[in-house]
Amino acid sequence: MFGAVSRNVAALRPGAQRAFSTGPALGYQARLSQYYHNTLRDDLMILQYVPPQVRARQEVMEEARLQAIKENAGGTPPNPLRKRLKVRPPKPRVAESAAHNTPYVDKVTVHIRCREALQNKHNLLSALMTLQVVTGQRAEVIKAKNDAAPWKLRKGMPIGAKVELTGDRMYEFLDKLVEVVLPRMKEYSGLRMDSGDGMGSFTLGFDNSAIGLFPEMEMVYDMFPMVFGFAVNIKTTAGQNPSGRLLLSGLNVPFVHARKPATESYML
User: Fold this and answer.
1) CA nearest to 214, candidates 170, 191, 182
2) b (16+ CB within 10 A) / e for 11-44
3) DSSP secondary structure, 241-266, as one string
4) CB 134 within 8 A of CB 175
5) Alpha helices in 177-234 (DSSP H)
6) How do residues 124-154 score in pLDDT, each as one tens digit?
7) Are 153 and 118 in contact (CB under 8 A)?
8) pLDDT tens digits, residue range 258-268?
């Protein structure tokens, strides 16, 4: 706790230069950061603890399952004349639960895809200023890496904007998103239980109506000629989706189970 405070206070020394921000400089530890370090981290360590006997049994079962898949694998043998395709590296082994490897939120990326910037690049200014107002940090332009003739897209053209948040600014943004924005969205129920990239990171997508729910946008919403939808990518250090869901659930990010379709009722 005191390390974060001293780090922020040191950055505010007279004569120190910092990037322009629409929000006040943080000279304290964010509320969500205090909650994680003082309460949630210990709870996650206890909930994810697996006894050594159970862990050894799980490892034996996993090795047997992988061996059975390898033996029963069929199909056409690989063509030796074809270039070898890139093989995705195996997932890292989940370490034993301890205080030093408890999962935490590494960074949060907020990005806007601006399709209108293909016709006029000045339309991207609204997206840049929107991210700066909402996150309190200057946004950077995303440029196309390849050409796409169907969309009249050329390499190097601006197509969006993004902001990468870490530290206390990241926790401040998550706190606003979870406590202010999501409760005011009537049609948003939460993330699905099967969401995630398999490595413990999750992405939330919102339409253009959600950007006006942030407290910083309420007073200046009419000043923006264009508003866009945005996506929030939450990257965690959890190696698996269940650990990431447990972490985000502790931060009050809602999750919902996929509802089964209602069965048809027949009248006798």
Assistant:
1) 182
2) eeeeeeeeeeeeeeebeebbebbebbeeebbeeb
3) HHHHHHHHHHTT--EEPPPPPPPPP-
4) no
5) 215-218
6) 888 899 999 999 899 999 888 888 877 777 8
7) yes
8) 766 555 554 54
